[in-house]
Amino acid sequence: MAKKTTTKTKPATIQQPVTFKKGGFYQDLGGDLWFCTNAKQKKVGDDNVVTMQRTEDGQAVGDATEELVGSFNKQLSAAELKEYRAVCQRERDAEEGTGSKAAPTKRTTSKPKKVTPANEQPKKMSALDAAAKVLGEATEPMATKEMIDAMSAKGYWTSPGGQTPHATLYAAILREINTKGADTRFAKTDRGRFGLNAAAK
Fold first, then answer.
1. Residue spans per domain, the chain
2. Which CATH class is domain 79-96+125-200?
3. Of the candidates 6, 100, 173, 177, which lies 20 to 30 Å from 113 by C-alpha distance?
4. For the whole model, what pTM was predicted?
């Protein structure tokens, strides 16, 4: 009996190799964002490396370092980068509090109604506050994708339509760790995983 030859297509789960371009923004497997400063790959041992620079809010920061090519899973499109920066800006605004904008000096002439606990509206939680709450309820460190899912399921915070909310949250958590130091609520426990900072409890 003749063997039947069938052409098998690659499963969709197989990761396609990332093509690097100088000036592009790339997401690594942990959801962190990087800026490509030199797209020329270099062989180091058994691995290829490319020169990347870590970013904050979609802006290149720090020194350029050689990172493993296999660490990256996608390049952000212009639309994704714009949304990433917009969400980061919203997170900064939320961190600074709702009173970041100057309150108007004149109010309406009608007397303000007394707010009772029954009809008081809960303050909208920022993604960082929601992430801290979720980690406080968790028994082990979590990846930002897991945090986003838990925050949404519990009604703490829902993405306003961003395509990479986990990457945005990852950058926001790292920003708090870098800016607040020992007073940060978060601690990076492993690659792409965070828990609460025991010293800040």
1. 25-76, 79-96+125-200
2. mainly alpha
3. 100
4. 0.46
